[in-house]
Amino acid sequence: MSTMVEGIQNALTYMEENLAQELSIKDIAEKAYMSEFYFQRIFGALCGFSVGEYIRNRRLALAAQELAAAESKVIDVAIKYGYDSPDSFTRAFTRFHGITPSAAREKGAKLRDFAPLRISISLTGGTTMEYKIVEKAAITLVGRKRVFNSDTSYQEIPKFWTEHMQDKEASAKVCGMFGLCIDSHGSEFDYLIADEYQPEKGVPEGCETRTLPAGTWAVFPCKLKTLQETNTKMWKEWLPNCREYKLGSNYNIEMYGVPCKEDPRESYVELWLPIVKVN
């Protein structure tokens, strides 16, 4: 298995062995030999849900098994799996299983399982994916920033774009040629709807700049309608099978071309992933 696959399996094993303990993204990512920023993005692309969702669902599945055995008190199980109060545990448990923790004790109660993830070897790929490796000069972007949590970013970032494009004053200041995703700290990251900075125009009110150094990028062209599909294939197929390069700095970029007036979904987009040569 590749180092990336081995790292993810190490992280999965670590989570499974410590579900009854406090788990931090930092410690989990270290087991995968990755930064917190990249581990969360890769995990989400591979699994379809966030690290936080995975841990929460595994804990609730195990909690139900313990309650069904009728050997533990609800309060003890709640505390064991990281809930501060029986009420918060009951709410989470009921959302997941559809019944209360007390009802889970009843014989024949219907409960949901959530099996632990495991890496398996399978044949994937077999499809073409266009990309190019390019050297780019340093670039400074200017734009509107918002901080997002990795657990909800897939839902919230599109809302940010919609809000921005509907705000005529904001969209006049920043057209939105770029979407910059850059590490903030831990489970949060900064996202900027941005343009290339032009010093003679200054920094618009409510905006800020970010300068990215010169370096090597893997660039993946696509259409707006295939953006999510390309993003998933980038993390799930291209990166694990790339032997010459590894992940670089903790940021990545979406570059949006001129919108297609006839059909916006046909608009040209590029995904930029910073990489470094493997020694």
Give an overview of the whole structure.
With 279 residues, this protein is an alpha+beta fold. It folds into 2 domains: 103 residues, Orthogonal Bundle (Arc Repressor Mutant, subunit A), CATH 1.10.10.60; 146 residues, Alpha-Beta Barrel (Multidrug-efflux Transporter 1 Regulator Bmrr, Chain A). Helix content is 38%, strand content 24%. The protein has 9 helices and 9 strands. Strands 1, 2, 3, 4, 5, 6, 7, 8 and 9 form a 9-stranded antiparallel β-sheet that branches. A hairpin with a 2-residue loop joins β3 and β4. α4 crosses α6. The protein is globular and about 70 Å long.
- Second CATH tier, the architecture of the largest domain: Alpha-Beta Barrel
Give the C-alpha Rg.
22 Å
Just give the CATH class of the largest domain: Alpha Beta
User: Low-confidence runs (pLDDT<50, min 5 residues)?
Assistant: none
Which shape, going by the Cα principal axes?
globular
What oligomerization state is this entry in? single chain
The biggest sheet, with number of strands, parallel, antiparallel or mixed sense and barrel status, is: 9 strands, antiparallel
Helix content: 25-40%
Beta strand count:
9
Features of this protein?
9 helices; 2 domains; Multidrug-efflux Transporter 1 Regulator Bmrr, Chain A; 279 residues; alpha+beta; single chain; 38% helix; nine-stranded antiparallel β-sheet
Could you write a compact summary of the structure shown?
The protein has 279 residues and is α+β, with helices and mostly antiparallel strands. Helices cover 38% and strands 24% of the residues.
